[in-house]
Amino acid sequence: MKTRREFHKLAAATAVALAVPAIVGSKVFAQDKPIRVGASVSLTGPLASTKNGLIGYELWRDDVNAAGGLLGRKVELVTYDDQSSAANVPAIYSKLVDVDACDVLFSPYGANLSAPVMPFIKQRDLFMIGMFGLAGNDVAKHDKFFHSGPWGPNSGRDWARGFFDLAKAQGVKKIAIINADLEFSKNAAKGGAEVAKEYGMEIVFNQSYPPNTTDFSSMIRNINAGDPEAIFIASYPADSTAIIRGVKEIGISDKVKIFGGAMVGPQYGALLSSLGPELNGLVNSHTFVPEPTMQTPAIKGFFDRYTPIAVKQGVDPLGYYIPPFYYVAGQLAAAAITGSKSVDPAKMAAFLHANSVDTIAGKIAFNEIGDWKERRVLMVQLRGIKGNDLEQFRNPGHQVILDPPSLKTGDLAGPYNKARAS
Amino acid sequence: MISIDILLNAVVTGILLGSVYASLALGLAITFGILHIPNIAHPTLVVAGAFFVYTLSQWGLDPILAALIGLVPFYILGVALYIFYSRVFERRGGANVLQSLTLFFGLSLVIEILLALGFGSELKSVSVSYIGSSLKLGLLTIPYRLLIPALLGPVMIGAVWLYLSRTNSGTAIRAVAHEERALSIAGLNPASVKRHAFGIATATAVVAGAALIMVGPVEPFAGRFQIGRVFAIVVLAGMGSIPGSLAIAIIIGIAEALVSSYLNPSWSPGVAFAILLLGLALRPQGLFGAAR
């Protein structure tokens, strides 16, 4: 009996001796260890042109750490290359959560790569900032997911509504729609067709084409046969180039008042420089352009630091489309952490739902599924482009904002053939 | 109702695209069709050729001239690749198709990564005065962007076909595919003949690359989209039939253009394989291949 009592005392003492340092130590350790932010980035593969976003993440991390970190803890970025393949994404995020113990997650780039991770995020009830995934949370409706991109509510249908608003203002009655057979383009074309019908426009041509189509001459002839007054295009960089060149080679009806809409490519330095004056007249979506209504000291400061790094790394030296919003993703995470004084997903999400956040892209407020409450996709018209010098695109007046009205810097120049020749 | 100008333009566009496809497939017609080496890295070598042309075009050289300059280095590259392949597999007597496929798949990945590291992942294109304008002939509007690269195909294929059929070394290349030992008895080194043939096949990649980058911009991973089509052309033409590959490529090009014009462009990637299945059902040895 005595032996058993002594044994119990000894066991209790041992447990206390082990537990106290562990409890105290874990608190100290938790305060000392960095806040880990995990993301997959497409460093290789067909989406590798988006890797300049990583510069945005890194600049944000450096800024936060230089200011003392978040909640007194340094911020550590944990990234893996998803090789632009959706198949790699689930394993990467499992590792980020279960092995790397990340506190905050940034999604992969775009809807195609983000889709596989959404069920995981919802099931594990994790906090995530979405990176350019159009309508990325419309199915999962996860309440701890927030978009860094300016798509706005009902984005699957409405993100390119600005193009149709402009067409409607021009009295367009007949419209043609073409799109690449890929997730983003298909969604854009489907949403565009719905908005066109809502505005009473007749869709005279509506066709998709396979990725990496190199010749659009027959499609352009068929479009001309339909006699449209507007042409809405949802394309990817290689096809955007082929379409622009095809229009120049085959010609397009003088009745076309507005041309473009959702072409991926003319936002990037490589295409701006290679196509140069061939882009004149195009009306296309964008997220940021250096027009007076968008230039703030904060965004200017970002690009002053981004450009030399991008030049050194050999990525897009302009970087208007993606990198600022990767920095914004960091700012949203920082606001959620400092605002809620926690890295608890529920508390962070509650803070972002209840408060708007000041970022380098302006003030952002979210709806219940993490869309920006206000759509802020730009429709810009490319104008006055001479030669292939990329530096001209740093100046205002070459990417004139037509929509939204709050940021507008000019009116639509048309019809398209006239604007193209100017 | 079928508009005659849309029909005519679709057929001509198909011929031009088919001719470009033939340029892309020529190297594979030699390595796979004649040497029976399943070089699935060939489309990636074509993309490497396109980047070579892009690099020289930055110094003001015309893409075609750049391609001609690239013939020698790409021939040497091909010879080196064959030596590596031969040492890894053939000398050990283990050159089965699966191992060869694995090797060339790995090679294509390595080339893609090297291109991405060297040039970045952005699209690259060449700027030449004739890109963007068209030749107008009655109802026809023919973009020079397609016409000039399309002319490269028949010229290159004709030159290779003449070489293979009219010269002794060309005859040796065709012979090595049939009976290596007989070639040895005749005093020729089969490995040397194959090396030379692989060099020629790889040299065609730089000309095809010039055609590819004139038609549209390229990025390091662009070869992946061409693999299926070029294999379909080589197999359907009949293994080793060089003129046959041109004819089949043009048939596929026309079929794709007609499908795009009159049905749905989204169906066009399936056209090559639909024709392949139909063709092989009718003639298992390929439309221009000799029965064995």
Indicate the structural class of chain A. Answer: alpha/beta
Mean pLDDT figure of chain A:
89
Bin the helical content of chain A: 40-55%
Greatest contact between two chains: A-B, 43 and 41 residues
Instruction: Kindly provide the name of the CATH class of the largest domain in chain A.
Output: Alpha Beta
> What's the domain count of chain B?
1
Number of helices of chain A: 15
pLDDT < 50 stretches of chain B: none
Enter the CATH topology name of chain B.
Answer: ABC transporter involved in vitamin B12 uptake, BtuC
Query: What string, H for helix and E for strand, traces the elements of chain B in order?
Result: HHHHEEHHHHHHH
Q: Give the CATH topology of the largest domain in chain A.
A: Rossmann fold
Q: Structural class per helix/strand content of chain B?
A: mainly alpha
Terminal CA distance of chain A reads 102 Å
Level-1 CATH class name of chain B: Mainly Alpha
CATH-level-2 architecture of chain B: Orthogonal Bundle
In terms of topology, how is this protein built?
The complex is a heterodimer of chains A (422) and B (292).
Chain A lengths: L1 H31 L2 E7 L11 H14 L8 E7 L7 H11 L4 E6 H5 L3 H7 L3 E4 L13 E3 L7 H4 L2 H9 L4 E7 L2 H16 L3 E8 L7 H10 L3 E6 L1 H14 L7 E6 L5 H7 L7 E4 L10 H17 L9 H18 L4 H10 L2 E3 L2 E3 L13 E5 L16 E5 L12 H6 L1
Parallel strand pairs in A: 1-2, 1-3, 3-4, 4-5, 6-7, 6-8, 8-9, 9-10
Antiparallel strand pairs in A: 10-13, 11-12, 13-14
Helix pairs in contact in A: 2-13, 13-14
Chain B lengths: L3 H31 L7 H16 L5 H26 L8 H23 L14 E4 L2 E4 H23 L1 H11 L1 H6 L4 H26 L11 H11 L4 H21 L8 H12 L10
Antiparallel strand pairs in B: 1-2
Helix pairs in contact in B: 1-5, 1-8, 1-9, 1-10, 2-3, 2-4, 2-8, 3-8, 5-6, 5-8, 6-8, 9-10, 9-11
